[in-house]
């Protein structure tokens, strides 16, 4: 009767470092023999130098929402591999992945793993907003720069996390877009969120937007651990609201989608970037058809700028890239560019990397990586997607829909 | 009225699964005065085993309508069988040795907890750790069977409610009418003396676990079909079913049934009230439990094994 | 019936004060569903006496005990209690068991109920300490008065152990004592609560004649030396007749007789309902 | 594999193999062991013989034999030596440990030892099965977060440094303990277990759903700041260094242990033992069983609350997921595993079982840890049902099977004080 | 050949040796009494015979067949019925259900025997539906004996049947034992009430700390000074 969430319930009470990191017991630079398989594989095309710098990645690599994390870690891994293979680094780059299961309570341990590893000079991630919130201050205190490819909660850049930067637009922007779009077609919206920083944040922003557009709304929160959505689905179905928005992540939306179908809900169904992944498509089955997704993210399979990236990705992973893979690739490359510049000048410290990240101006495949004072990226587009016959298709820029 | 009916049936659906699981708790409690903490893993094992069977039978194929009931039955049986064997092994490993040593009650509880950890982690290792595995869609679960007061009652609900009721009636007969039932009650009340009457204690206890396990495993299949399943799925339904068993009067078979159904209904009806909200579902369950126990310390029907009142 | 037990013939000036009533049971009726286990029972118990309650199995003796100690609440009648000298009578109906104990009523059980995992000494201390004041905080901090109380409780417990002849076994677990020793320990624990009256439910059941003798001596000593009144249920007539000052006989929940041992032994109703014909007794005695 | 502390690092000592994870601290501790073992043994034997002579001298009124550690650690000399060894290790090992183990020591071992000590009062001494113990830990944590201003509602009187929340947490937990215990402590064993379990879940779910108060699953925000102790003349600021927390925690644990030990051997402790052994007989002996049970509950609750404050202060961030039922069950498992009713047992149980998963981390895949822990617990219970260090008072419970119930218990259910309506 | 032969058995509780090698026998149709102080090992002996305990040494034969080590639930099929110490009725079952449990080894309880039990103990018939746990001590004792009779014993083991019974009932119980015996049931009786037991028994054994110290016919033992002093509580020294 006793096991709880995915990996191990006990360590959920733990703030012990590395409680849930899968592969990341990375050795300090000194003891190279202890490098784990995963770290060395990332070091793939080893360069001739024996200086080693590491970038960390924090995100969910296990648990229900692992696909979102894996998408990103693949992107980062690809970037690191390409950098090492390019031969012009002058040092070896290693990737240290730290698994936070996407849960805030596992985040401190995951962060501690990276922070305690003095070889780590910069971090891509955390992937999720809640995880970021839990450790933003810790990373900032440790002066370890973060570039998140996907943590979209609006308040992350206003919480005094000096280390935090992101290359995607916030949920405030995304949800405002969704609200405008919804207001064009429906008069009442049922809003459900998963109580997480991301889900609730997105839902809050949406509610704000809809209210100001004079749309009637209704709110409920459902813990992300729920596996039985029949009660809430029934409530939605009998509410008569014309649209439903769910703020939360892929695995949960897919269950909700099924429950809604069972309950016979016929309205417009929408979710944010957290829902857009293959996990949703597979989990929801045909109940997922018709769902809309808003996402400040690029579809690398169609975007011309990402052609090379997509080819390399498919070659390495035997599957097309997915949500946030290109963004993670960009974030990693941006980070690498900073380290590379510093390494050319001498030793690379966390402080230097931090300063370097703040001063970045790097052209990525998804966007121009250049941060405002608060750590936001300057340029941003929100796209609208829709699932049809088990495939999520890009409909285009939200503004135009 | 329509909403009420909808909720009532969805409550009954949940409730009948709780009741099936609760029976396992109650039976074991009846004979050993112990909370079998690993029973939730028995339930879980039923879901996995039946998935393997059903998935093998269905595969990617299109299933003709007349085979569906057979597959369903196969799922039910394999779930029950798996539950029964896990429960049997559980008793052998985690209980019998301690019983022989005359261990204190809590030691049993802890060894059952150890077993529960082990089984759940083992299932995670053997299969996977996603919390949302699903059975193949081999029939239209959501087909509307009939409508009451405008509420559409779906196939899966009907199957679960009737399946559970049939199993419970069967169990009730088994325990109240037969020698097995007598020996269970005898061991429950005073094991050494029961032995003097010619009752084989070990066998009786084993059988009790097996019966409870079979029901729990079958419930695992039903649950997996209706919702999703995982290696940790046992936990919450397990706790609730245990609560249901206590609610009805632990050790009391009909109590477990009534407690389970009641808990399921309450759990759906109360949060459906406009001012409460579905997120309080689990709280409602526990608050009701606490209140009932404070008012009626031995549960609704009291503690007698195998009797209604 | 030439036994050694009749050391103190009961008639020999009992220390009884008939003006001072400990228990006044008035017209008490106790029912369980269809079973009436006490049927309009009235009786008085006086300070200083050893009062025995006898009667056939199921006559309601234990039920009476349970009513006197607040375990059962009779549907009708009243039970007033003034256990210690100078107490005002209070009603025991509906009172909690531990309150009744504090009012000066101690009891033992028909089946021994010690704390088997505590030592003999500790068993008695539990009783003694319910009369003490120190709270958990002063215990934790080991404040002076708490320690003084603790010393007193150990001292008193040893006294009681000596009184029941168990000094040697002070530090043995109660569960490891022999049956007869456990019976005596249970009495010592009861005495630890400084009762005015002690209720003994079949204390001699399952003990052998030698132990019965020791028990009889002990009860008389408690009664005479400690001034504790004794209410006794017992089926062993030798024991009862040798130590009781007065007897009350119950049958089918009703009081059928009351009086001195001599009178009771001759009472034809009692013989018919309970004692059996004299022939049996003598026949056996002659062998 | 992890960073060695600078001390060990500069000494250049390093270990290898599977024990690597322990850092060089193992070796240094071994040294300290030897040092202390010597003195410890001497002190212990001297004391031991002395107390024997006192008894021989005829001072008969000596208090009864201490009744906790029996069995393996039966003799007072070994017990004392062992105690000294443990204490030496607690003092001298942590600075030499890797920072990984330092934080395991604080956030896992230390805190759970404290929790186990608290629960031991409830389960081990008073014999009440509490499956919602973590709720009080949660309450302690949330009280702290509230008082430092990390929750949406702000305290009207301004914020404070986290550790000063201890008295408030104790007070709130006492009240919560009494609120829970008041109506429910009259229930018998397993009913109490399910009610406490329900209470634990209610607290957790309320923490999730009372969004405006607790910030739901997002946890306190901003994080709980690191504690500052400002005594006017000196000012002590805690940082990320786990050692500071360790020594603070050690002090807390020592104080609690000393106090609880005194309690165990006082009238309160005996009353609990009596209730546990036979509630009806305890009542008949004048023990106000309800009051003592409530007391045990409240004491356990407040200990748990202290642990909560400490946890919140150290880690700074938590969510309702830190307070899942599983953790309540685990604390019970620690206590039973170590030896119910035995203080050293409960502590050892918690220490071993919290250490084990961290240790296993390098030996088995992370996902398999739960399985190993389950197996260890299972084997332990099968082969040593009394626990690691069984309590002497409890060991009498290890009767054989046919002893399990005196007839009168079931024969007179009314005697249990509930169905007494006749 | 005796019905029951106990041959040099030794029984232990862990390290404690409760029975240190005793031998005795009970012939078909006999009543044999086991006497002894508290803790002498009477109950232990009976439990070993009925299969609740296993001897660590020695043999027990019933009807010539070895039975030591056979568990209680199998032994009952040979007709060894045990009225255990402390009555041990099933407290939450009714009187009737308790009696039916006594006949568990048969497909159906024998109505005639049931009737016979009710004749012997009319109180049981009056309370046929009452929960056994709420019966008075003496009533429970009657029930326990009745329950054993339902199992159609060949050998009836009685452990202190008179404990807690009113004097009148004690006499009745001994009459009933006699009656059962006359009907062909062999009885092995443990009693504190030595005088009554020996008066009834054909033969008796006296146990002391796990060993048999005396044996003989009931009459002889009753006349024995040591028995009179130790078990009848009589002073013979004057
Ligand atoms: N809780 C109860 N429910 C129903 N009947 C009860 C209950 N308690 C006692 N009785 C009945 O009340 C009657 C008196 O019982 P009680 O235990 O007082 O007898 P007693 O005089 O002590 O007998 P004994 O000498 O055999 O111990 C019995 O017939 C018994 O069955
Ligand atoms: N379960 C047990 N564990 C350990 N020792 C036991 C156990 N049961 C009995 N003993 C011991 O075995 C010895 C014999 O006990 P037994 O019960 O057979 O005596 P008895 O002759 O029946 O006494 P009584 O007259 O008190 O019933 C005693 O010393 C007793 O303490
Ligand atoms: C990977 C993404 C779905 C993460 C999400 N946008 C968040 O902020 O948490
Ligand atoms: Mg009685
Ligand atoms: Mg005996």
Automatic annotation (TrEMBL), chain B:
<feature type="transmembrane region" description="Helical">
    <location>
        <begin position="143"/>
        <end position="171"/>
    </location>
</feature>
<keyword id="KW-1133">Transmembrane helix</keyword>
<comment type="similarity">
    <text>Belongs to the binding-protein-dependent transport system permease family. LivHM subfamily.</text>
</comment>
<dbReference type="InterPro" id="IPR052157">
    <property type="entry name" value="BCAA_transport_permease"/>
</dbReference>
<feature type="transmembrane region" description="Helical">
    <location>
        <begin position="283"/>
        <end position="302"/>
    </location>
</feature>
<dbReference type="GO" id="GO:0042941">
    <property type="term" value="P:D-alanine transmembrane transport"/>
</dbReference>
<dbReference type="GO" id="GO:0005304">
    <property type="term" value="F:L-valine transmembrane transporter activity"/>
</dbReference>
<dbReference type="GO" id="GO:0015808">
    <property type="term" value="P:L-alanine transport"/>
</dbReference>
<feature type="transmembrane region" description="Helical">
    <location>
        <begin position="15"/>
        <end position="35"/>
    </location>
</feature>
<keyword id="KW-0472">Membrane</keyword>
<dbReference type="InterPro" id="IPR001851">
    <property type="entry name" value="ABC_transp_permease"/>
</dbReference>
<feature type="transmembrane region" description="Helical">
    <location>
        <begin position="42"/>
        <end position="58"/>
    </location>
</feature>
UniProtKB/TrEMBL annotation, chain C:
<dbReference type="Pfam" id="PF12399">
    <property type="entry name" value="BCA_ABC_TP_C"/>
</dbReference>
<protein>
    <submittedName>
        <fullName>ABC transporter ATP-binding protein</fullName>
    </submittedName>
</protein>
<dbReference type="InterPro" id="IPR003439">
    <property type="entry name" value="ABC_transporter-like_ATP-bd"/>
</dbReference>
<dbReference type="InterPro" id="IPR051120">
    <property type="entry name" value="ABC_AA/LPS_Transport"/>
</dbReference>
<dbReference type="GO" id="GO:0005524">
    <property type="term" value="F:ATP binding"/>
</dbReference>
<dbReference type="GO" id="GO:0015192">
    <property type="term" value="F:L-phenylalanine transmembrane transporter activity"/>
</dbReference>
<dbReference type="InterPro" id="IPR032823">
    <property type="entry name" value="BCA_ABC_TP_C"/>
</dbReference>
<dbReference type="GO" id="GO:1903806">
    <property type="term" value="P:L-isoleucine import across plasma membrane"/>
</dbReference>
<dbReference type="InterPro" id="IPR027417">
    <property type="entry name" value="P-loop_NTPase"/>
</dbReference>
<keyword id="KW-0813">Transport</keyword>
<dbReference type="GO" id="GO:0015808">
    <property type="term" value="P:L-alanine transport"/>
</dbReference>
<keyword id="KW-0547">Nucleotide-binding</keyword>
TrEMBL record, chain D:
<feature type="transmembrane region" description="Helical">
    <location>
        <begin position="191"/>
        <end position="210"/>
    </location>
</feature>
<dbReference type="GO" id="GO:0015658">
    <property type="term" value="F:branched-chain amino acid transmembrane transporter activity"/>
</dbReference>
<keyword id="KW-0472">Membrane</keyword>
<feature type="transmembrane region" description="Helical">
    <location>
        <begin position="294"/>
        <end position="312"/>
    </location>
</feature>
<feature type="transmembrane region" description="Helical">
    <location>
        <begin position="160"/>
        <end position="179"/>
    </location>
</feature>
<dbReference type="GO" id="GO:0005886">
    <property type="term" value="C:plasma membrane"/>
</dbReference>
<dbReference type="InterPro" id="IPR043428">
    <property type="entry name" value="LivM-like"/>
</dbReference>
<feature type="transmembrane region" description="Helical">
    <location>
        <begin position="128"/>
        <end position="148"/>
    </location>
</feature>
<keyword id="KW-0812">Transmembrane</keyword>
<dbReference type="Pfam" id="PF02653">
    <property type="entry name" value="BPD_transp_2"/>
</dbReference>
<dbReference type="InterPro" id="IPR001851">
    <property type="entry name" value="ABC_transp_permease"/>
</dbReference>
<feature type="transmembrane region" description="Helical">
    <location>
        <begin position="332"/>
        <end position="360"/>
    </location>
</feature>
TrEMBL record, chain E:
<keyword id="KW-0813">Transport</keyword>
<dbReference type="GO" id="GO:0015658">
    <property type="term" value="F:branched-chain amino acid transmembrane transporter activity"/>
</dbReference>
<dbReference type="InterPro" id="IPR003593">
    <property type="entry name" value="AAA+_ATPase"/>
</dbReference>
<dbReference type="Pfam" id="PF00005">
    <property type="entry name" value="ABC_tran"/>
</dbReference>
<keyword id="KW-0067">ATP-binding</keyword>
<protein>
    <submittedName>
        <fullName>ABC transporter ATP-binding protein</fullName>
    </submittedName>
</protein>
<dbReference type="InterPro" id="IPR030660">
    <property type="entry name" value="ABC_branched_ATPase_LivF/BraG"/>
</dbReference>
<comment type="similarity">
    <text>Belongs to the ABC transporter superfamily.</text>
</comment>
<keyword id="KW-0547">Nucleotide-binding</keyword>
<dbReference type="InterPro" id="IPR052156">
    <property type="entry name" value="BCAA_Transport_ATP-bd_LivF"/>
</dbReference>
<dbReference type="InterPro" id="IPR003439">
    <property type="entry name" value="ABC_transporter-like_ATP-bd"/>
</dbReference>
<keyword id="KW-0029">Amino-acid transport</keyword>
């Amino acid at each position: 009767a006793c096991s709880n969430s995915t990996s191990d319930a006990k360590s959920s009470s733990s703030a012990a470092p590395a409680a849930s990191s899968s592969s990341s017991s990375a050795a300090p630079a000194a003891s190279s023999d202890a490098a784990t398989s995963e770290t060395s594989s990332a070091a793939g095309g080893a360069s001739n130098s024996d200086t080693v710098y590491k970038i960390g990645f924090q995100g969910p690599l296990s648990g229900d929402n692992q696909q979102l994390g894996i998408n990103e870690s693949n992107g980062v891994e690809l970037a690191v591999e390409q950098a090492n293979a390019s031969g012009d680094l002058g040092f070896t780059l290693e990737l240290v992945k730290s698994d936070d299961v996407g849960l805030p309570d596992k985040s401190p341990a995951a962060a501690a793993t990276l922070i305690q590893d003095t070889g780590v000079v910069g971090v891509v991630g955390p992937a999720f907003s809640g995880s970021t919130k839990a450790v933003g201050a810790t990373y900032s205190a440790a002066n370890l720069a973060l570039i998140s490819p996907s943590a979209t909660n609006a308040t992350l850049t206003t919480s005094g996390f000096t280390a935090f930067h992101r290359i995607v637009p916030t949920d405030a922007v995304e949800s405002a877009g969704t609200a405008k779009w919804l207001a064009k077609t429906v008069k009442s919206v049922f809003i459900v969120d998963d109580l997480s920083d991301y889900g609730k944040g997105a839902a809050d922003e949406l509610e704000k937007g809809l209210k100001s557009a004079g749309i009637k709304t209704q709110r409920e929160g459902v813990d992300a651990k729920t596996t039985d959505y029949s009660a809430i689905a029934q409530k939605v179905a009998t509410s008569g609201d014309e649209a439903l928005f769910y703020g939360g992540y892929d695995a949960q939306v897919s269950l909700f989608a099924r429950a809604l179908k069972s309950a016979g809900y016929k309205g417009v169904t929408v979710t944010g970037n957290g829902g857009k992944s293959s996990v949703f498509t597979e989990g929801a089955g045909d109940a997922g058809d018709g769902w809309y997704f808003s996402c400040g993210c690029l579809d690398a399979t169609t975007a011309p700028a990402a052609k090379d990236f997509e080819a390399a990705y498919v070659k390495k992973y035997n599957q097309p890239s997915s949500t946030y893979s290109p963004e993670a690739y960009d974030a990693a490359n941006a980070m690498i560019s900073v380290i590379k510049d510093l390494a050319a000048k001498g030793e690379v410290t966390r402080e230097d990397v931090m300063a370097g990240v703040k001063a970045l101006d790097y052209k990525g495949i998804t966007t121009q990586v250049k941060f405002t004072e608060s750590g936001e990226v300057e340029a941003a587009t929100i796209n609208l997607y829709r699932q049809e016959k088990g495939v999520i298709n890009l409909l285009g820029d939200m503004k135009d829909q | 009225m329509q909403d009420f009916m909808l909720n009532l049936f969805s409550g009954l659906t949940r409730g009948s699964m709780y009741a099936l699981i609760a029976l396992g708790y109650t039976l074991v409690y009846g004979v050993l005065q112990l909370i079998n903490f690993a029973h939730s893993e028995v339930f879980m094992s039923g879901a996995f085993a039946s998935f393997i069977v059903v998935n093998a039978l269905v595969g990617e194929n299109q299933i003709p309508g007349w085979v569906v009931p057979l597959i369903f039955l196969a799922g039910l049986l394999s779930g029950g069988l798996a539950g029964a064997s896990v429960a049997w092994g559980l008793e052998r490993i985690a209980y019998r040795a301690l019983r022989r040593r005359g261990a204190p009650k809590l030691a049993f509880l802890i060894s059952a907890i150890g077993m529960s950890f082990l089984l759940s982690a083992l299932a995670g290792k053997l299969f996977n750790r996603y919390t949302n595995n699903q059975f193949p869609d081999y029939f239209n679960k959501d087909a509307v069977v009939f409508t009451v007061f405008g509420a559409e009652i779906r196939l899966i609900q009907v199957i679960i409610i009737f399946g559970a009721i049939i199993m419970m009636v069967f169990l009730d007969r088994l325990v109240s009418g037969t020698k097995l039932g007598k020996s269970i009650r005898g061991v429950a009340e005073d094991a050494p003396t029961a032995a003097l009457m010619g009752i084989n204690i070990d066998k009786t206890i084993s059988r009790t676990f097996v019966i409870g396990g079979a029901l729990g495993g079958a419930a695992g299949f039903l649950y997996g079909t209706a919702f999703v399943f995982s290696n940790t799925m046992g936990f919450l339904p397990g706790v609730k079913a245990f609560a249901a068993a206590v609610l009805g009067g632990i050790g009391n078979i009909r109590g477990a049934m009534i407690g389970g159904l009641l808990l399921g209904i309450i759990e759906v009806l109360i949060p459906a009230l406009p001012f409460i909200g579905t997120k309080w579902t689990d709280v409602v369950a526990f608050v009701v439990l606490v209140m009932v126990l404070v008012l009626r310390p031995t549960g609704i029907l009291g503690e007698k094994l195998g009797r209604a009142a | 019936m030439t036994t050694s037990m009749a050391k103190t013939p009961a008639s020999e000036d009992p220390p009884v004060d008939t003006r001072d009533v400990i228990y006044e049971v008035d017209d008490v009726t106790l029912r369980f569903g269809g079973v009436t286990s006490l049927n309009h029972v009235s009786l008085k118990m006086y300070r200083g006496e050893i009062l025995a309650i006898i009667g056939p199995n199921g006559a309601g003796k234990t039920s009476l005990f349970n009513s006197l100690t607040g375990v059962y609440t009779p549907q009708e009648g009243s039970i007033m209690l003034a256990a210690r000298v100078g107490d005002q009578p209070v009603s025991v109906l509906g009172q909690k068991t531990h309150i009744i104990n504090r009012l000066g009523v101690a009891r033992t059980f028909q089946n021994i109920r010690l704390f088997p995992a505590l030592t003999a000494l500790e068993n008695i201390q539990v009783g003694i300490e319910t009369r003490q004041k120190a709270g958990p905080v002063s215990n934790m901090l080991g404040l002076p008065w708490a320690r003084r109380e603790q010393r007193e409780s150990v001292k008193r417990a040893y006294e009681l152990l000596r009184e029941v002849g168990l000094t040697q076994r002070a530090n043995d677990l109660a569960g490891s004592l022999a049956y007869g020793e456990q019976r005596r320990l249970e009495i010592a624990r009861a005495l630890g609560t400084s009762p005015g009256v002690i209720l003994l439910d079949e204390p001699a059941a399952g003990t052998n004649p030698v132990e019965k003798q020791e028990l009889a001596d002990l009860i008389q000593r408690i009664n005479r030396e400690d001034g504790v009144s004794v209410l006794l249920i017992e089926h062993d007539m030798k024991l009862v007749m040798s130590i009781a000052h007065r007897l009350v006989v119950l049958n089918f929940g009703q009081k059928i007789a009351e009086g001195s041992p001599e009178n009771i032994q001759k009472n034809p109703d009692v013989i018919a309902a309970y004692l059996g014909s004299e022939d049996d007794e003598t026949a056996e005695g002659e062998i | 594999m992890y960073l060695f502390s600078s001390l060990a690092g500069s000494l250049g000592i390093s270990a290898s193999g599977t024990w690597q994870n322990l850092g060089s601290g193992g070796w240094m501790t071994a040294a300290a062991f030897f040092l202390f073992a010597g003195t410890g043994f001497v002190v212990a034997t001297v004391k031991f013989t002395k107390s024997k002579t006192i008894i021989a001298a005829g001072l008969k009124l000596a208090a009864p034999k201490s009744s906790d550690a029996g069995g393996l650690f039966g003799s007072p000399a070994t017990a004392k030596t062992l105690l000294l060894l443990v204490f030496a290790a607690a003092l001298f090992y942590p600075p030499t440990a890797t920072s990984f183990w330092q934080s395991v020591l604080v956030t896992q071992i230390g805190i759970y030892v404290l929790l186990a000590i608290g629960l031991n009062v409830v389960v081990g001494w008073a014999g009440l099965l509490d499956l919602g113990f973590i709720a009080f830990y949660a309450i302690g944590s949330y009280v702290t977060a509230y008082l430092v201003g990390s929750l949406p509602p702000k305290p009207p009187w301004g914020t404070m440094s986290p550790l000063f929340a201890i008295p408030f947490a104790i007070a709130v937990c006492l009240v919560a303990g009494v609120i829970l215990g008041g109506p429910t402590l009259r229930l018998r064993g397993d009913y109490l277990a399910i009610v406490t379990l329900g209470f634990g879940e209610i607290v957790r779910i309320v923490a999730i759903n009372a969004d405006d108060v607790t910030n739901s699953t997002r946890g306190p925000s901003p994080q709980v700041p690191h504690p500052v102790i400002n005594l006017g003349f000196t000012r002590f600021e805690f940082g990320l260094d786990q050692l500071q927390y360790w020594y603070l925690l050690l002090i807390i644990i020592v104080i609690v242990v000393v106090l609880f030990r005194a309690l165990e051997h006082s009238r309160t402790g005996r009353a609990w033992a009596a209730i546990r052994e036979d509630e009806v007989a305890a009542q008949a002996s004048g023990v106000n069983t309800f009051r003592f049970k409530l007391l045990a509950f409240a004491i356990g609750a407040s200990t748990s609350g202290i642990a909560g404050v400490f946890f919140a202060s150290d880690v700074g961030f938590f969510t309702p997921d830190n307070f899942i039922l599983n953790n309540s069950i685990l604390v019970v498992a620690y206590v039973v595993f170590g030896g119910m009713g035995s203080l050293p047992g409960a502590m050892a149980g918690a220490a071993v079982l919290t250490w084990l998963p961290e240790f296993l981390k390098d030996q088995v895949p992370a996902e398999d840890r739960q399985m190993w822990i389950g197996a260890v617990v299972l084997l332990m219970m099968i082969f040593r049902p009394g626990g690691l260090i069984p309590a002497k008072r409890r060991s009498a419970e290890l009767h054989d099977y046919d002893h399990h119930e005196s007839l009168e218990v079931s024969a007179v259910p009314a005697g249990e004080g509930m169905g007494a309506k006749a | 050949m005796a019905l029951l032969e106990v041959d040099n058995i030794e029984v232990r509780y862990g390290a404690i040796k409760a029975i240190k090698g005793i031998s005795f026998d009970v012939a078909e149709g006999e009543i044999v009494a086991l006497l002894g102080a508290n803790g002498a090992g009477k109950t232990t002996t009976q439990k070993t015979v009925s299969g609740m305990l296993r001897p660590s040494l020695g043999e027990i034969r019933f009807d010539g067949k070895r039975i030591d080590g056979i568990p209680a639930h199998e032994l009952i099929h040979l007709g060894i019925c045990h009225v255990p110490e402390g009555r041990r009725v099933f407290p939450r079952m009714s009187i009737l259900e308790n009696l039916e449990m006594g006949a568990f080894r048969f497909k159906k309880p024998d109505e005639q025997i049931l009737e016979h039990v009710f004749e012997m103990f009319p109180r049981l018939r009056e309370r046929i539906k009452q929960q056994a746990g709420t019966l008075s001590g003496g009533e429970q004792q009657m029930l326990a004996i009745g329950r054993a009779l339902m199992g159609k014993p060949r050998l009836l083991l009685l452990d202190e049947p008179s404990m807690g019974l009113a004097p009148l009932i004690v006499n009745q119980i001994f009459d009933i034992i006699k009656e059962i015996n006359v009907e062909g049931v062999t009885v092995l009786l443990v009693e504190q009430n030595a005088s009554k037991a020996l008066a009834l028994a054909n033969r008796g054994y006296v146990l002391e700390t796990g060993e048999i110290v005396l044996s003989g016919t009931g009459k002889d033992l009753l006349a024995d000074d040591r028995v009179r002093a130790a078990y009848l509580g009589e002073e013979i020294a004057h």
